[in-house]
Design goal:
The chain is built from 12 helices and 12 strands. The protein has a domain of 293 residues: Alkaline Phosphatase, subunit A (3-Layer(aba) Sandwich), CATH 3.40.720. The radius of gyration is 22 Å and the shape is globular. Helix 3 crosses helix 9 and helix 10 packs parallel to helix 11. The protein has 419 residues and is α/β, with parallel strands linked by helices. Strand 3 and strand 4 form a beta hairpin.
Length: 419
């Protein structure tokens, strides 16, 4: 967690706080929430889900360059074996392979719904977790004074297309920097928190507090208030409902956030952007390759969670794009404790119905000493803003992303990640 996040404002804005103050009969609004989904059809509203692997995930052991002999020279004990070998990588394109702990995602790749971007990173060569995490979330690398996030700028630049106060949601206890600057983001660690207050406790807040929040008496304020209350009641009903995953999806205990996010999307509350924060990717020791170690364990959890999320959404997945990213990669060479240290380039995963998947994108220069950044790290040849910018433009429909990524001028053609 960055210093700004630790000292930032409270997680809930005044409108978002109303989601914690929803009243009425739980049974009644639960039936209403389910009926709304059942009879409205599948929404076509686009959703962007950002999954942040906090701690710097090792892209070389996620998307394995098994055709590069230097990979095995640099990693004699933690390299993932080539395809066909025990616990070997799952071949992607004859050059790269997927860590077998992510086998749950191979069907999505084969179906053309999962793509990888290799050798991606920030142009600002920081190996500080805090600085690089901030740079990714603000999308202004090298400018430490930025105090607002790229998702917040998007939400301000592109007004909502429907009457909803739930355009942004984060499964965090505080507003992530990526959403800082957008006051109506709702941030809670779990949906159950939304139904924690009893009706008796809510009486005065709904009777007097609501009127004070919208005391100007304008028609716009009244409409906003009614929408906030409507979303609040539906959110609380959703939080207290026990609807199981759909389409045979099954989530492991560690995938609660993905299961709850799927429920939010299926509830059709106008969600556009979501943020999930997953820690524990700083593998300085006992990293492992595909069998034992911290990285294989976390990859298995991530892969199964994303696969269950995809299955659970069913046809709704056609309007969802998931971007999995990290602040930087790891050193190309393993260290003396079976781990890797802070590096540069890593890999991003782009998953979703609109994705032109089944490919590994990016410009991978190889792992020879001459190709490595400072002769130690995978070079970051694709700016992470190239990926995010294409997703925001092509998927979320914001034609001009200049204000979302200030000071960024792409120097290469778009990757073509989305059709």
């Amino acid at each position: 967690m960055t210093p700004r996040e630790l000292s930032g404002p409270q997680a809930l804005s005044r409108r978002a706080a109303l989601s914690l103050l929803a009243a009425g009969s739980v049974e009644l609004v639960t039936r209403r929430a389910r009926a709304d989904v059942a009879h409205s059809g599948v929404s076509k509203d686009a959703v962007l889900v950002c999954v942040f692997l906090r701690g710097a995930a090792d892209g070389l052991n996620i998307v394995v360059p098994y055709a590069d002999r230097d990979y095995y020279r640099l990693r004699p004990t933690i390299a993932v074996a080539p395809p066909g070998k025990p616990n070997g990588a799952l071949d992607l394109d004859g050059r790269f392979g997927l860590n077998p702990r992510l086998a749950a995602l191979k069907p999505a790749y084969d179906a053309g719904e999962l793509a990888f971007v290799h050798a991606v990173g920030s142009p600002h060569p920081s190996r500080s977790h805090f600085e690089a995490q901030d740079a990714l979330q603000t999308a202004t690398p090298g400018q430490r004074s930025t105090n607002e996030g790229f998702l917040a700028r998007y939400l301000r630049e592109k007004p909502g297309t429907r009457d909803s106060d739930l355009r942004a949601f984060a499964f965090t206890d505080r507003v992530p920097l990526a959403l800082r600057g957008y006051e109506d983001a709702l941030c809670v660690e779990r949906l159950g928190q939304l139904g924690a207050l009893g009706e008796r406790e809510l009486g005065s807040a709904l009777g007097d507090g609501f009127a004070k929040l919208y005391a100007d008496g304008t028609e716009r304020a009244t409409r906003s208030g009614k929408r906030a209350l409507d979303v609040s009641t539906r959110l609380r009903a959703l939080a207290q409902s026990k609807a199981p995953p759909e389409n045979g999806a099954s989530y492991d205990p560690g995938a609660r956030s993905f299961a709850e996010l799927a429920r939010l999307i299926k509830a059709d509350l106008g969600l556009e952007t979501a943020w999930l924060d997953l820690g524990g990717w700083d593998t300085h020791k006992y990293q492992g390759g595909a069998e034992r170690g911290e990285l294989p364990k976390r990859l298995s959890t991530l892969g199964k969670a994303l696969a269950a999320f995809r299955a659970d959404l069913g046809p709704r997945f056609e309007r969802v794009v998931v971007v999995v990213m990290t602040e930087f990669g790891r050193t190309a060479k393993e260290n003396g404790t079976g781990g890797t240290d802070h590096g540069r380039g890593s890999a991003m995963l782009v998953l979703g119905g609109p994705v032109r998947g089944g490919r590994v994108y990016g410009d991978f220069h190889g792992l020879t000493p001459e190709a490595l950044y400072e002769r130690r790290d995978l070079a970051a040849t694709t700016d992470f803003r190239t990926v995010l910018g294409e997703v925001i433009e092509k998927h979320l429909g914001l034609r001009d992303t200049a204000k979302v990524f200030p000071g960024f001028s792409p120097t290469a053609a778009p990757l073509g990640l989305l059709g």
